[in-house]
Amino acid sequence: MKNIILFSFLFLIFSCVSVKKHNEKLEVPISVKDLKNDVDFTQRKLEQLHPNLYWFITKEELDYQFDSLKVTIQKPLKPNEFYQKLAPVIAKIKEGHLRLYPYDKRLTKKEIKHLKNQKGLLNRYNFIVEDNRIFVKNNVDKIPNMNVGTEILKIKDIPIHVLLVKYKPLINSDGDNTTFQRYSMARRWPSFFTAEYGILDSVKIEAQYKDVVKTFYIQREKITKEEKEKTKKENKKLTKSENGKTKDYNIISKSFNRDLQFPTKDSTIAYMKIKTFSGTYSRKFYKQSFALLKKSPAKYLILDVRDNLGGSLSEINNLYSYFVTEDFKFIKDMEVTSRASMFHATYFNGVPVLAKPIAALTYPLYLVATALSVKKKDDKFYLRNNGLFSLKKAKPNHFQGKIYVLINGSSFSASSIISSKLKGDNRAFLVGEETGGTNDGTVAGRYSTEKLPSSKLRLPIGLMLVQPNIAFTETKKGVVPDKEIIPTLQEVLTKKDIQLEWIMEEIKNE
User: Fold this and answer.
1) First-to-last CA distance in the chain?
2) pLDDT in tens, 189-227
3) Which terminus of the chain, N or C, has less C-beta within 10 A?
4) What is the location of CATH 2.30.42.10 in the chain?
5) Where in the chain is the domain with CATH 3.90.226.10?
6) Going by CATH, does the domain composed of 233-333+387-437+480-509 fall within 3.30.70.20?
7) pTM
8) SS3 letters for 346-363?
9) Closest CA to 289 of 278, 301, 277, 276
10) Are 19 and 108 in contact (CB under 8 A)?
11) Collapsing DSSP states into helix, strand and coil, what is residue 410?
């Protein structure tokens, strides 16, 4: 018992020292020589590991960007000052999955415990970004002064357009697509703000609602015991399986990730909303849903992947098998840079602490499997044709009716891939806005998280070129809808779904 107490005490001391040392580095300027070495390291790692680095930018252009960056570094910089210079260059590669991360401040256990018992600050709202302006889209907790439609004019006395102009170079998307940026900025500007100004307990806001301008403070509120108990009971009740939903309940958004509904009395139309391809409970959901569709009189299926940022390749591969009548190959063989590139994948990412010893024991098996998984063809390297890449069979309960797919600029990654495949195979009619992910694929899959030697900034690099098995458009654009419908700001704020309404009217006319 004495040894356990001593070990716990030492662990606590070393943890506190580690946090203190880590945070002190935030304020220490890095020499010009070391910063330039970090630039060279970044470029070298991208060339070594990224399987399609010059897809949307030429080698000459990218070399010029890195060389120009080094010229501008003429004095020592703190890690996050250097981040502000390097991140825009990474964004010019135009790969939505490729993103540099700033040097984060670590929290002590005491600070973590304090925040755990507090409600959020800016993350309690959803926002819309429109022409360098920010509007409140949702205020679930009904916090005063922040009604839906409120425009935030200033935060900490800083005009919002000044912040958005500053953060804009840090946002990128796939290829020449431009629809993704405003959705991404709406999600990420609070994290950019927090990275710059720290975790605040309150912040001064100037906002306008219905021509009335107000100045006030929004504050973190302590979560009461009663609120904790109430939330716990509600979530326990809701996370149980419900018909057409099958678990996968999101406690934060208070909604199910997947949902199947029949919005008309005669049940001839089915509506399936997928918020993210998380993989969790997906097979059970699709098995139950398409069995139900098979028995129903549904002749039309509306698949809604708007604001779905992607996720599991296995899930979209499985989902697609319910849309076809014949054997199919969902994605092309995935290209990698070399036989050795997959050895760089960050193996222990996401592995729970208690499971890491087991993961360490199985690591040699992983290395052998990785070595055998790569093949060479026409001077290029690919992962072998098995599992996800092999020929798949259509499901017996496949849907034979007409399919409409709802997409927007926040349909990204796996959402873009399944939308591209459905359109490329003439299996669905797409409605909405050009997707944020490109029509012809993306670089993602497994990642190698590189830590820059001096600044310690993190750069996860996708190791696989993932492309749907279709005839490519070569446009460097997102998946373009068959019917483009872009809602106005007012329609979004009033929750008027003109894209879904158009489909319902189209089906009615048919």
Assistant:
1) 76
2) 999 999 899 889 899 999 999 999 999 999 988 888 887
3) N
4) 118-219
5) 233-333+387-437+480-509
6) no
7) 0.90
8) CCCCCCCHHHHHHHHHHH
9) 301
10) yes
11) coil
